[in-house]
Task: structure prediction
Amino acid sequence: MDGEGAHAAIQLPEGSWWDWDVVAWDAGQLTLAAGHDLTYHHGLELIFGDPIFVSCPSGFHDPVFRAPSPDELLKVTRQLGETPPVVVAFEADAGGQEPVSCLIAAERLDVVQEPVLRYWREDATPGRRFAPWVTSPGQ
Result:
């Protein structure tokens, strides 16, 4: 994403993206994974490159993505000294009585749709991707 579209509501590909969690987070990348049930696999990843502001729980359900409000953009801009290229805002069910407002700012955003296994399988087809924490027995 780049330009003006980076601050619009993101559009997810068709699918059942109810269950979400953080699968990777370091200085270079924040990855949110989604699926209809994260027990065995996920099918969607939002990969934020060089995240510079993150306010969201580590796990949540049924997010509603929207354009960031002018106040949210101002908050991030004041904290960072400039408006970041990507700002994503959403409300989600984090288990409380009210939805939680979430805000993520980053240098870039990639949306990747592919099956990612969350546990080891001997019979996985060649080239099948495993989640970062999955290792084969004996490793």
User: Anything to note?
Assistant: The chain has one domain: 3-130. Residues 1-5 have pLDDT under 50 and may be disordered. DSSP finds one helix and seven strands in the chain.
